[in-house]
Amino acid sequence: MKARLVFALAAALWVAGSARDRFDAWVAATDLPSLSLATGAEVVARDGRLLRAWTVADGRWRLAAQLQTTDPLWRAMLLAYEDRRFYSHAGVDLRALARAALQSLLAGRVVSGGSTLTMQVARLLEESGTGAWHGKLRQMRLALALERQLSKDEILGLYLHLAPYGGNLEGLRAASLSWFGREPSRLTPAQAALLVALPQAPEARRPDRHPARAKTGRDRVLARAEAAGLLSHEEALAARSEALPQARRAFPQLAPHLTERLRRETPGDLRIETTLDATLQTRLEALAREALRGAGARVQIALLLADHQSGEILASVGSAAYDNDSRQGFVDMTRALRSPGSTLKPLVYAMAFDEGLAHPETLMEDRPVSFGAYAPQNFDRRFRGTIRAAEALRESLNIPVVTLTEALGPERLLQAMRRAGMRPVIPGRATPGLAIALGGIGVTLEDLTTLYAALARGGTVLPLSTRPGERPQATRLLSEAAAWQTGQILAGITPPDGSPDGRIAWKTGTSYGHRDALALGWDGRYVAGVWMGRADGTPVPGAFGAGLAAPVLFQMLARATPQPVPLPPPPPATLMVENARLPQPLQRFRPRGAILAPGVAPEISFPPDGAEVALEGAPLLARVRGGTAPYTWLANGAPLEIATRSPEVQLALANHGPLLLSVVDANGRAARVQLTLSP
After folding, report:
1. Three-class secondary structure of residue 155 per DSSP
2. Residue 6: predicted pLDDT
3. Which residue in the list 115, 176, 339, 342 is annotated as catalytic?
4. Strands (E), 57-136
């Protein structure tokens, strides 16, 4: 008897072992569907906020999500309601299946399901139904196989992406953005409960179509959460009174022109990071719509805002609305070729200051003049006579800037534009002429903003970029002093809103025929550009940069920061004197040929560049070689000796430390050395 019992036990163990092996082999032989889920491409702002997203190929909204970044309350509610033993079972919960079978037997109908979250993932992966027994068996087999291949968190990650939420919404993140307009990282208890309840009956419980059913499902989840101790009675009561969403929200579509371009440029990237500030982008898109009210049915606008210190573009508005309407909103006007009007004039003056052709206090002539067949006129067809260069730029006079361009050479102006990162296009690919200084050339708003960023940055060029980490080496376009002098002049223009001047350096432009109205400017951190006109290039009667675009420019900068960031102080090498104390060649503008007189340029022979000089209470001995007397000596831009004919001078200096010592000869040629003075 005893031997039979032992034999029977051994046989039973063998049968059980054999069954277990066969069962393991059955599970191991399961054909797994693809676990690689397609998610829609998305472009995000500098802080990770969603700017724009796209559906997957079949038109469903399914966005990438991380389990760790979802609201912990949603995860706890999901497990409490759907699968309390998720972390302890192997894919199938026999206790839950038995309970569901008993409830159905007693009630004569299906009361509750016994599916685990893993079984639900299996069904969602294969898009199979839930009713037929063979379908349920397949789900159980696949669930067991999934549990052997994946971790519990990986299975939850699949549910996170596959759970249906009504219509073409799939996955928690798409649902949270569509129903609540927010990421699922922070949800209210009511929101979390609805997002747990919806996948059970995604169409029947859609809150926009069946609010009563949606509320019933949500409140059941809240009751289960309260029973599980996830919510207090008061919290659950407050959550039940929270209103349901009445309609789906549109997915974010900020900076549509830019995001569409970035997606085309990087077709394989599912997550494209940018330097854009989502808050600023939202504000400026609203500003663009406001600016067009009453502006005419076909008038369009483009805005660009960047941090000129880093070169990062913070907001880009290609049009007021991304529509194929009478305004041609699909055209990105930040990159459309347009005439710059007078907005290139600051570059001409900065180049003239940098090369010793002129100084802000230099006297210029605003009188009738002709250059062969070309006879420029001022916008108002009036002449001011003799005028300071600074005032000529502030008043945007045409004749003085054309005479400077003639002295510089149009080709050199064109080269400077290219060195500034611009891509100018000459109409008909003709030889560059003097008219390019007045806007006779094609550039983009992005080009102009890049140029003004270089002026704001002290004359160094740093290409503007929307991609983080892209920071090429800055290159010098102009001297720091010339860039500062230009900005100082532009800061003296009275703002259109009547606010105090001196805080924002800015310039407007109006193209020939009133086709384009522009305004660009900067403070100590931001550089901004505005274009207004018609996308098809037809005239806008009465449109001027000062009247149309300038107010928008100041509103842009005000929405970037309540108070303008202060402009920088003058660099040490800046020559800040009145006209009478300028070196003689700079007191009145003369043609370039008169300034470049023959002879050797001056050179400071003592002290040498980079020297450390101990003054010990004595004046500094300085000596110049070459050049043409008389000489003017300057210390950190301030005149010390004027019109001295001797090549050797004794300079009385009161301060110690770094010193930029400069000398200018009678022909306007200069030399500089950097010294360090000690007592």
Report:
1. helix
2. 62
3. 342
4. none
Given this structure, which CATH class describes domain 254-565?
A: alpha beta
Residues in a beta bridge with 351: none
Average pLDDT over residues 199-222: 96
CA distance 36 to 59: 17
State how far the Cα of 565 lies from the Cα of 522, in Å rounded to an integer: 9
Q: Is the pLDDT of residue 101 over 70?
A: no
DSSP assignment letter at 61 = B
Helix (H) or strand (E) holding 624: strand 620-625
When the candidates are 3.50.50.60, 3.40.50.2300, 1.10.3810.10, 1.20.272.10, the CATH number that belongs to 61-240 is 1.10.3810.10
673 DSSP β-pair partners? 661
Residue 310: closest CA among 469, 535, 88, 121: 469
Tokens of 608: 């040498």
- Cα–Cα distance measured from residue 469 to residue 46, given in angstroms and rounded to the nearest whole number: 11
CA 337 from centroid of its chain's CA atoms = 21
Type of residue at 630: P
How far apart are the C-alpha atoms of 139 and 130, rounded to whole Å?
9
pLDDT at 268 (0 to 100): 87
- With beta carbons less than 8 A apart as the criterion, state whether 316 and 466 touch: yes
pLDDT mean over 519-541: 94
**In Å, how far are 605, 663, 677 from 660, measured between CA atoms?**
14, 10, 10
Decide if 549 contacts 528 (C-beta within 8 A).
no
CB of 551 within 8 A of CB of 496?
A: yes
Active site residue 342: yes
Annotated active-site residue 465? The verdict is: no
Hey, how many other C-beta atoms are within 10 angstroms of the C-beta on 226? 20
User: Where do runs of H (alpha helix) occur along 492-628?
Assistant: 550-560, 584-587, 592-595
pLDDT tens digits along 364-391: 999 888 888 888 888 888 889 999 999 9
According to CATH, what is the number of the domain 579-678?
A: 2.60.40.10
Write down the number of H helices and E strands in the chain. Answer: 21, 20
For residues 405 and 632, give the distance between their C-alpha atoms in angstroms, rounded to a whole number: 27
Residue 651, classified by CB atoms within 10 Å of its CB into exposed (0-12), middle (13-18) or buried (19+), is middle
What is the residue whose two structure tokens read 């983009």?
444
**Per-domain residue ranges of the chain:** 1-30, 61-240, 254-565, 579-678
Residue partners of 88: CB distance under 8 A and separation at least 6 = none
Separation between Cα atoms, residue 477 and residue 420, nearest integer Å = 7
Q: Which amino acid is at 651?
A: L
Percent composition of the chain: helix, strand, coil (DSSP 3-state, to 5):
40, 15, 45
610 has a pLDDT exceeding 50 = yes
Question: Residue 532 belongs to what H/E stretch?
Answer: strand 526-534
Task: Classify 145 as helix, strand or coil.
Answer: helix
Query: Which residue matches tokens 């000489």?
Result: 631
Active-site hit among 42, 82, 183, 406: 82
